Amino acid sequence: xxNLNGYWVNKRSGTIHHVLQDxxxxxxxxxxxxxxxxxxxxxxxxxGDAVQRFLKNYxxxxxxxxxxxxxxxxxxxxxxxxxxxxRKTNGRVGITKDDFFSKVKGVN
Length: 108
What we know:
The protein has 108 residues and is of the alpha+beta class. It has one domain (6-104). Helix content is 34%, strand content 28%. Strands 4-3-2-1-5 form a five-stranded antiparallel beta sheet, covered by helices on one side. The N and C termini lie far apart (31 Å).
């Protein structure tokens, strides 16, 4: 399996995680993920079939971000909040899904 260390974004919620890959005693991959852009830090552990679900539901962003990109995008709680409001109000308040993911992918 390829190296999964780096920053990943949930395709639906917009939550960004810092992911570290490890292997369990039987050689299967496990993932340790910490949220970056939520009000409270959350930690997750993925193993077994959950690793495949993680790969299906998340997009890779980068493995070694610049300081500006980390502060302005990856750890930006306001950006995540604006995206959440945009989803709830169909874009009337906050930002749209396209705006959010263009910033996360580094297009803007």
